[in-house]
Amino acid sequence: MLNGEKKIARPFRWAMVGGGRTAGVGYKHRTGALRDNTAFQLVAGAFDIDPVRGEDFGVNVGVDESRCYPDYKTMFTEEVKREDGIEAVSIATPNGTHYEITKAALEAGLHVVCEKPLFFTVAEAQEIKELAEEKGKIVGVTYGFSGNQMMLQMRAMVEQGKIGDIRIVELQYTHGFNATDKADAISEAQKWRVDPKIAGPSFVLGDLSTHTYYMSQLIMPNMKISKLLCDRQSIVGSRAPLEDNAFVLMHYENGAVGRLWTSSVDAGCMDGHRIRIVGSKASLEWWDSKPNELRYEVQGEPAQTLIRAMPYLDESCLADERLGALHQEGLSDAWANIYLKFAVAMDAKNRGDEETLKNLVYPDINAGLEGIRWIENCVRSADAGAAWVEFE
Ligand code: NAD
Q1: Does 106 share its domain with 170?
Q2: Which domain holds residue 89?
Q3: 32: Cβ below 6 Å to ligand 1?
Q4: CATH of the domain at 252
Q5: Does 89 contact ligand 1 (Cβ within 6 A)?
Q6: How many structural domains are present in the chain?
Q7: What are the Cα distances from residue 93, in Å, to 48, 52, 107, 114, 367?
Q8: Quick check: ipTM above 0.95?
């Protein structure tokens, strides 16, 4: 169980690029990273595309004025000169900037935590992976939902054969917040999400389904997709060529089949994030809106609801417990779990401790790379007229 005591010798001196006053996701980074005060300390930032607003915001959240920078390039150049300069940076800017900022950060000798979807292409991710290896740095990806410790319970139960051989994978991440084009015109965050120059080759496949795809890989690390078929639509036509709805059929190497539905036009749906894994003996099901519960349904027996923090759970799941039973937790805890692992990974890398890195389960550069591979294959299939394509 976690109680906030330190896991590494001292916290990393940490900065953010993006995540400022108007940002959607910035606060989740800070609540995740700063939760324990023993993993990261926020000491600098280039928080906003608008430098004046960025500085005002940085000072407001406690960063010294002299370390609130107008842009990330100035921040990296100036911080390198300081003895107490930053050691790690989180990138919470729109998708199209992730690659160049990550590259610049690694070249400046920093560990990186970057938002999803990591970059536009697998080739870019491979290049950054090599650069990170060369520089001896970690690149973490904020698949925040994956920090829900019930994911580790599912992983343990799959590994222990509790559901038998996996036959069917059913994934869903949908909501209805873009059922009309209203937000596309008025929300800065929505405008770039439907602009391929900034969002990349997809909208909801990258914005939503990369989370769920990573979570499925976390739960079932041995399940490899052999081929997929992606059928995507711009149901609100002005979003073409980017999709606001997609169905993906998957075939796995072990013969299992799967399907994923992702959508932002699922009108009336406030949170349709669901993972169901069907095995030969039993099924597991988890809903984001009930993150403390895991359904375990054994064929022919009464269904069970496993509850977070209870001693019958796997020790890997209980190791990420923060509140104990009876107290309900949610997404901020999931983010804190992810950030703590980023810090442990960075610390291990600094010490050349490859053993710790090998055993640490967290969304690393490979997870980011696989997210892009997922999008690339889906887009290739969809663009070929929703055809089956080999998963490359
Ligand atoms: P947003 O448009 O709400 O905010 C973007 C922020 O970045 C703003 O503060 C903006 O001023 C700043 N910015 C833009 N360009 C910049 C630059 N060059 N330098 C410094 N700051 C810059 O977007 P958002 O919803 O916060 O999304 C940002 C990223 O986070 C996207 O990649 C998105 O996919 C991802 N995201 C992830 C999650 C998650 O659960 N992990 C949730 C939401 C968004």
Answers
A1: no
A2: 12-145+340-364
A3: no
A4: 3.30.360.10
A5: no
A6: 2
A7: 9, 17, 19, 9, 19
A8: yes
Residue 123: CATH number of its domain: 3.40.50.720
What distance lies between CA 376 and its chain's CA centroid?
A: 17
In a shared domain, residues 300 and 346: no
Half-sphere exposure of 296 (CA within 13 A, CB side): 17
In a domain, 6, yes or no: no
Q: How far, in Å, from the CA of 23 to the mean position of ligand 1? A: 6
Distance 98 CA to ligand 1 centre (A): 10
**How high is the pLDDT of residue 135?**
98
Q: Among 93, 120, 148, 173, which residue has the most ligand 1 atoms within 8 Å of its CB, making it the best to mutate?
A: 93
Give the model's confidence band at 295: pLDDT under 50 very low, under 70 low, under 90 confident, else very high: very high
Q: How far is the CA of 77 from the centre of ligand 1 (A)?
A: 22
Q: Say if 3 falls within a structural domain.
A: no
Instruction: Answer yes or no: is pLDDT of 105 > 90.
Output: yes
Distance 365 CA to ligand 1 centre (A): 19
> At how many degrees (to 10) do helices 122-135 and 365-383 cross?
170
Cβ of 215 less than 6 Å from ligand 1: no
With respect to residue 346, please indicate whether it lies within any of the assigned structural domains.
yes
